[in-house]
């Protein structure tokens, strides 16, 4: 209904809708209060402030000047001891959180290392086997179709280039 009220104030409703809105203004107090607010806002936007609005900004600024300004909370008075609850929250809870974090990471590492096989020393032997024409054709075929095969990095495989070693090198 607020859209219709705003449209009526802008002169964008037909006569039938305007009549219905005026009847509602006559009998509905909350609708009439909304009408008053919309009219006041329109007047202020156009620069026609009512007399009670004169000096509004200055009055607010003067009241803000008289407000006390607190830049920091009040400190602890000398000789007053901090309660035990403070020390428990301030010191013990961070320590407990750190211990729980270490235990959680240790549990994950223990679970992963339990399933992993023992490390084995691996030596690689490089064979000097000459490339044959059929192995070069097979390598070219695999390189051309590697993007279609899937695997760990199917999208990146199109950028992989193989270099067959010619015989005798």
Question: How is the topology of this model organized?
Answer:
Elements: H1 2-9, H2 15-27, H3 29-46, H4 56-66, H5 84-115, H6 133-145
Helix pairs in contact: 1-3, 2-3
Task: Give descriptors for this structure.
flat; 169 residues; mainly alpha; 0% strand; 6 helices
Overview of this structure, please?
The protein has about 170 residues and is mostly helical. Among the domains are: about 1-65, no CATH class; about 130-165. About 55% of the residues lie in helices and about 0% in strands. It contains 6 helices and no strands. It has helices at about 1-10, 15-25, 30-45, 55-65, 85-115, 135-145. Helix 1 packs across helix 3. It is flat and about 100 Å long.
- Main sheet? none
CA distance, first residue to last residue: 87 Å
> Which parts are unreliable, with pLDDT below 50 for 5 consecutive residues or more?
none
Based on CA inertia axes, which overall geometry fits? flat
Secondary structure tally, helices: 6
Rg over C-alpha atoms, rounded to the nearest angstrom: 41 Å
The topology string of helices and strands comes to HHHHHH
| Structural class based on helices, strands and sheet pairing | mainly alpha
Average pLDDT over all residues:
75
Helical coverage, percent range: 55-70%
Strand content: under 5%
Total DSSP E strands: 0
Could you provide a short overview of the structure?
The protein has 169 residues and is an all-alpha fold. 56% of the residues lie in helices and 0% in strands.
């Amino acid at each position: 209904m607020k859209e219709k009220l705003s449209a009526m104030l802008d002169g964008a409703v037909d006569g039938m809708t305007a009549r219905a809105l005026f009847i509602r203004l006559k009998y509905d107090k909350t609708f009439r209060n909304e009408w008053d607010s919309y009219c006041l806002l329109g007047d202020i936007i156009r620069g026609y402030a009512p007399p009670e609005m004169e000096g509004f900004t200055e009055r607010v600024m003067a009241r803000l000047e008289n407000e006390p300004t607190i830049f920091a909370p009040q400190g602890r008075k000398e000789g007053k001891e901090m309660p035990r609850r403070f020390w428990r929250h301030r010191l013990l809870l961070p320590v407990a959180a750190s211990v729980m974090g270490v235990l959680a990471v240790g549990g994950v590492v223990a679970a992963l290392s339990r399933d992993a096989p023992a490390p084995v020393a691996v030596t690689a032997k490089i064979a000097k086997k000459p490339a044959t024409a059929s192995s070069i054709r097979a390598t070219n075929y695999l390189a051309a179709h590697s993007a279609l095969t899937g695997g760990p990095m199917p999208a990146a495989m199109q950028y992989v280039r193989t270099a067959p070693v010619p015989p005798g090198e």
